[in-house]
Amino acid sequence: MRKIATINFKGGVGKTTATWALGQIASQETGIKTLMFDLDAQMSLTQAIALNEDGNPFKDFTDWYSRSVGKKKTIFNALDEYTKPATFNFGINHDFIYKISECFHFIPSAEDLYWTELEFFDREKVKHFIQRLMEKIQNSSNVPKYDYVFFDCPPSFSLLSYSVLSCCDLVLIPINPDFFAANGINLLLRSLKMRIEPSPIPRIGVFMNRAKKPGGTSRRRFSNETQRYLGDANEMLNRVRSDLGLQVNLFNTAIFDRVGMKRAIQEGMPGDIRNQFEELWGEIKKFVRET
Ligand SMILES: Nc1ncnc2c1ncn2[C@@H]1O[C@H](COP(=O)(O)OP(=O)(O)OP(=O)(O)O)[C@@H](O)[C@H]1O
Ligand SMILES: [Mg+2]
């Protein structure tokens, strides 16, 4: 089981889109089972899954979700159980894990996750929550043995993202071609190292999302602006690599800016973007397998 967490402090860079796209692509490989988590209290991924192409509720999911909430089988209930003094007694089954398709499963977010940011839970204890939950999932005979687990994290270091980052195999960071690309990575990686140590720091992979094509008949790959921001990000990563001793890779594949991505989760990815995500997934797999 390889665990991949998508994070960036910056909002709107494509964390949710990438988590979903890569999760779906991975699950379509023969014999591969994929689990996807929405750990963001904003619930963007959960809401996207809950809507149909026409913007109406996707009844199969919304009915399942109401039952899951009614039976106290959400991720918040799991956390609540885990933080009780008694042994962690939370049954893993398909009231907790929704089947998007046979090989692509999903643990939605819950509104109550906002509570985790308050002094409601023991912070030290919550740090190990995801690790313990993943062990439970791995040992349960009610759900498949997942090959890949994807976590969609909020644009901040929430207690839960912490808990994921300290046990994942890869931290995946989407960046956009803007001023924050290089500076944001620097800030993120420095805080990651500071917060996670003494736990080992996972491998880190960065990719450019919303890359712009050059205008006119130019045969270059990117616009001047995208090229410049990529160069800045690369320079920053070199610096961070040597200053902090982290294993960071800037993936060669970039995902281009495409209007049709707005409703991709409901309507499906445009074919060209799917190809780009497939290529990125190839690079990611290779990188995590080197561990
Ligand atoms: N390659 C792309 N081309 C065009 N639009 C994109 C692309 N990637 C993401 N988007 C759009 O950008 C918006 C933000 O994307 P997304 O929700 O994935 O970002 P996020 O980092 O998860 O945001 P948040 O920080 O709020 O969780 C969405 O409307 C999404 O459809
Ligand atoms: Mg998001």
Structural summary, described in words:
With 291 residues, the chain is of the alpha/beta class. It has one domain (2-289): P-loop containing nucleotide triphosphate hydrolases (Rossmann fold), CATH 3.40.50.300. It has helices spanning 15-27, 44-49, 59-70, 75-82, 123-126, 129-139, 159-165, 180-196, 224-244, 264-267, 271-289; strands at residues 2-6, 34-38, 98-101, 104-107, 148-152, 170-175, 203-211, 248-250, 255-256. Strands 1, 2, 3, 4, 5, 6, 7, 8 and 9 form a nine-stranded mixed sheet that branches. α8 links the parallel β6 (170-175) and β7. α1 (15-27) packs across α11 (271-289) and α8 (180-196) packs parallel to α9. It starts with a strand and ends with a helix. The structure holds adenosine-5'-triphosphate (ATP) and magnesium ion (MG). The site of magnesium ion has 5 residues, from α1.
